[in-house]
Task: structure prediction
Amino acid sequence: MTGAGRPAPGDGAPAAGYWVTPRTEVRRADRASYDRAVVRAILDEAPIVHVAFALDGTPFVVPMLHGRIDDRLYLHGLPAARLFRHLRAGPEVCVEATLLDGLVMARSSFHHSVNFRSVVVVGRARLVRDHAEKLAGLRAIVEHVVPGRWDDARRPSGPELRQTHVVAIPIEEASAKIRTGPPAEDPGDLGLPVWSGVIPIRTAFGEPSTEGAAGVAAAFPAYLAELLSGGRGAGA
Result:
């Protein structure tokens, strides 16, 4: 962890939550959480994360699939990609995830908002060189998207592993920001004949299709049926 930090309010000890640092402190204290379980839950539910980094003075933000093992995030990609050419040198990066839960419609445009859950992680990237950890990181990414898929599908071959970089980012400096509830209304607006309330947002899977698929036909697996019926999965 870089920079001075302090325990999060009410946490009592770093084991229960992440240290509050100048880089991760949420200015709206009423929407902040440094609780380890809250941060992990948002990262686990988010379908993707956005990875921000600076290269030769130019800022970049790249959407990535991710996986988590304890307090480590894993990303994967081609060694020739700009992001992974940069990450293998071990720079600090910022990783962000957002879940959009609802449109908050107030009577005034000023008070319109959204209900959301988000996480920011700041950490130093590390290129994974250990074979066992590399496989574990790839497994975490696949299982994050579709639980049960890793054990069903063919494992990566030696050439495929050599064509793939896996990067680990420690989740040590992290915070969550959350908004829930109805719109805030100015008392003078309460008499306006304008609809006010919250419109929930849900992510849903579509109908599976094998159109154009090649190879031997196989039965639709139970873990995918569970995913479509409302079980845990990316964005569930």
Summary: The chain has a mean pLDDT of 91.
